[in-house]
Amino acid sequence: MFFLLVTTLAVILIGLSVYGTGNLRTENQPSETEQAASQESGIATDLLPDLSKAPESNGADGAPPADLVQAAAQTPERVQKFPGPELRPSPEYAGETPDQAAPPADAEGPILYITGSRVNFRSGPSTGDRVIGALNGGAAVEALGPNDGDWVHIRDMDGRIGYMSGQFLSPDAP
């Protein structure tokens, strides 16, 4: 095991010495005169930009170079890729507005309105009973019995009869 470790390290060191580019630390070190000047002034030279290299493109007036491309020219204009036609109602519903709050035509009991966004109504007065359907918020229903209990016996606009939780019913139209 030890022999394998030593052999691996030797191969890595030989590879670095043959294919390496030299000591990168010595290439980026400031000269002795720069180090002396920075020690006198108390400024770290590695944090300052190299001002000895002047920008090649700025003229005496400080204008940007002629070949500089402005950011606005590089940014493409936003275009909707797949514009579609304007939305229109289908011909059979043109000029009509849906009226969900209309009470049943032959209502004899008080009219109540659904307050939830979509509420199930069931065959019996409990959540264990079968779901008959669901009604959207604002739909009008007829109360067939007392409407002050936990469950209210109702009939919807399609004539289906069932029970709905009283917490989702209100006598006030939306």
From TrEMBL:
<dbReference type="Pfam" id="PF08239">
    <property type="entry name" value="SH3_3"/>
</dbReference>
<feature type="region of interest" description="Disordered">
    <location>
        <begin position="27"/>
        <end position="108"/>
    </location>
</feature>
<protein>
    <submittedName>
        <fullName>SH3 domain-containing protein</fullName>
    </submittedName>
</protein>
<feature type="domain" description="SH3b">
    <location>
        <begin position="109"/>
        <end position="173"/>
    </location>
</feature>
<dbReference type="InterPro" id="IPR003646">
    <property type="entry name" value="SH3-like_bac-type"/>
</dbReference>
<feature type="compositionally biased region" description="Polar residues">
    <location>
        <begin position="27"/>
        <end position="42"/>
    </location>
</feature>
